[in-house]
Amino acid sequence: MINVFAIDDHPMFIEGVVSTLKKYEKNVRIIGNATTCKEAITELKTLDVDIVLQDLLMPVINGAECCKLIKESFPNIKVIALTGELNPVLLHEAWKNGIDSIVLKGSGGDELYQAIRAVTNGRRHFSKGLPEFIFPVKECTSGALPKLTVREREVLMCLAENTNRKQVVDKLFLSPRGLKFHITNLNIKFNTGNMAELLSKARELRYIN
Description:
- By secondary structure, this protein is α/β, with parallel strands linked by helices.
- α6 packs across α7 and α6 (150-160) crosses α8 (176-190).
- It folds into two domains: 2-126, Rossmann fold (3-Layer(aba) Sandwich); 140-204, Winged helix-like DNA-binding domain superfamily/Winged helix DNA-binding domain (Arc Repressor Mutant, subunit A), CATH 1.10.10.10.
- α4 (88-96) links the parallel β4 and β5.
- Strands 2-1-3-4-5-6 form a six-stranded parallel sheet, with helices on both faces.
- It has helices spanning 11-21, 37-44, 63-73, 88-96, 109-120, 150-160, 165-172, 176-190, 195-204, and strands spanning 2-7, 28-34, 51-54, 78-83, 101-104, 125-126.
């Protein structure tokens, strides 16, 4: 029996996973779930989990970083991202952090089960239809300037105006989760680890004044 633990901040995601895997209940079972990565790390210490199934867009700690934390604390646990995310930068971050599989939402139960079997047998599995993410846009450490989307430039400009996150959310009509997603991508593209470093590097490269 393969024991699966699910992480997502939306109850419907958990319900969907349970429903999708019901067909394979002789071989797979959901033994727990959590709404945040921090909560999941605590739960995983007490459970016999083989696979963690998660989204990539999650509050506070995104799925790529969550994968890294799980791998550091529980190296034998496999991690599968079941996601609709097509941003190659975030996908690449997940890949670098040791994600075992990325399955696109809507691929169907058979592919999810195929991914579960693959990672259980020590293989990595990635859905067809994913964009190229193994070799994404070069980071600025390589000498190439980061390539930003229009939205990322808007977010960067707003952050540079010393507005707090609530003001940025209101001004750009973003959700807090959406803002965090863009900030994560900006940190990846500028090879920085926090807001101060991000703004300093962006000023150094003359993206902002």
